[in-house]
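Hi R.,

Here are the chain sequences for the assembly we discussed:
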Amino acid sequence: MKLRLETAAMDALTVRLFDAIDERNMAWIMAADTALRHAFGDVLIDLVPSYTTLLIHYDCRSMAFVEATALAREALKDLQPADTQNGQLHEIPVWYDESVGPELPQVAKRAGLSVEQLIERHCGHDYSVFALGFAPGYGFMGLVDESLTTPRLKTPRRRVAAGSVGIADRQTAIYPLLSPGGWNILGRTAVPLFEYARRGEPLFRPGDKVRFTSISRAEFEAAGGDTTPLEERA
Amino acid sequence: MSQGRMIVKQAGPLALIQDAGRFGVGHLGVTQSGAADWISYNWANWLLGNPANSAALEIVMGGNLTLEAGSDVCLALTGADLDARIDGEPLAPNACFTLKAGQCLTFRQPRAGLRVYLAFPGGLQAPEVLGSRACTAREMIGGLHEDGKPLQTGDQLSWQGDAPSPRQLPDNAGLPMPQNRCQLPLVLGSQVAHFAGRSLYQAFNQPWTVDQRADRMGIRLTGQALKSKLEGVISEGIPLGAVQIPPDGQPIVLMNDRQTIGGYPRIGALTPSACARLSQCLPGTEVWLRPVSATQAQVTHRRQLAVWE
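And here is the predicted structure of the full complex:
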C-alpha cells in the first residue's frame, strides 16, 4: 500500500492506494472509506471507492482545496486494513442455461471444461465486490479462476436482460437492469438488484463477498425469474 | 394553497424534470444527474423566489414541445433561446412571465444555446428518489412516473401555490449563451503526467469542436488527437467535468449523467461553470481549454454561488 493524493477536479481528490487489481486491496480501501467518511463528515458530498482508489467529492463552499488535501492526508496517515470479516457474504442463485447465458459453451470451450465444470468453477469462489458503477447496483466482482479469463465480446450487445450474470477478463458481474453490454453471459438471477439500489440499499457494497449457486429452471421460475431467452430481446 | 396544473400537449425530443442533482449515492453506482446548466437553472428558481433545489424543467432543443396552462401561472424562463412562443407570440427569455389558463407555451428550435430552464411556483411536484427529483433516462430513475422517462404527450405537470416573490434579473447577471471561441477553465489532474508534453501543449493551444456525439452523459470534442502513454487505467471514480482521453485521442467531457467509475486516462476536469457553459454549446461550436488552479476555480465558484444568497 502506497498512499498518494491526487487532484481530480476543482472539488474532488483521488486517493490512490494501489496500482493493480487484487482482492486483498479491499480491506485497505474499506478502511480508507470509513476513515474518510468520519473525517469529512458533513463536508463530504460523495465518496466513491473502487479497485485501487477512492474519489472524494467535498463541499468547497465550506472547505478549501488546501484544507481538504490536508484533512485527507491526516485521516489516512495511520491506516490499518479493515477486518475483512466485516464484509457480508451474499448468496446469489443463478440459472445457468444457454438460453439465458449464450456464452456458456464458448467460455467452457476456452477453458477446456464441460459446461457443468464451468458452472462448478464459477460457483466455487467467494468473489470480492471491488466497486459499484456502470449502473445502479452493478457490482464489479472478482477474481474468477484464471482458466475462466475471457475477453469482452467484440461487439457489445445492445440489450442485456436484467439479472444477466457475466464474465469479462477475470471479473464477474450481474446486470441490475436492461442495458447494453459486452460481457460474456452465463446465466440469470431473479434477485432484483436494481430495486435494492434505487431504494438506496444495494444488496452488496464494495468489500462484501458474493457466492453464486446453481439452481434449476423450476427454482428460477419459482423465484420470479424471467425465462425469456437473451437473444430474443436483442 | 391552490394546485396548479399544466398539460403536455405535444412532447419534444427531450424535456426532463431536474433539480440540483442526486448526491451521496455515487458509491451505489447511481449518477449525479441534475440540471446540466446549473447556473441558468438557479437563475430560473431565483427569478420566482423559489427555494434552491426546486424541481424545474430542462428542455433540450425544443422541437415544438407544447405546454398548455390549466390556470393562470407565473413562470420563469432562462438559458437558451429556443424561440419560445405563447400562442405564437415571441417570448423574451431570462424573465418571469404569466401564462394564462388555456394558453400554450411552445419551444421551437435553438437560436442560441441548447437548454432552457422553466421554473414553476414552489417547484414542480415529482416523486423523490434517493433524495432528488432529477430524471435520469439511462438509470430509469426519477421523473414524473419514476421510470426516468422524459416528458411524454399527455403528461400532467403540477405545483402548489403562487410564485413566492417574482424578481427581475439584475443588469449585471449576464446569461450569455456560448459563442465560438468559448473558454472552458479546466483543473489539471495528476494523470497529466501520463501525457506527452506535446499533447499537453496541444490540449490548451488548439480549438476543439463540440461534436454531434453529445448528451447528458458526455460531450465529445474533436481536434488534433492527444496521446496518452496509458491505454487505459483501472476503473476509478470520475468527477463532474472529467476530460477523459480514449485511445482515439479525442476528448470526452463527462457530464451530469456520467457513469460513476471509468477507466480512461484524464487530463483533468472542467470547472462546474465550464460544464454549464459546455452543456449549452451546439455541435460545431469552437471551444478552448484553459488551465486554472483548483484554488482559483473555487474562489470563482463561491462568487457565483453568492449571487443567489
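Residues 3-160 of chain B form one domain. The interface with chain A takes residues 23-30, 32, 129-130, 138-141, 187-191, 234-242, 259-262, 268-269, 271-272, 294-295, 297-298, 301-302, 305 of chain B (CB under 8 Å).

Let me know if anything looks off.

Best,
T.
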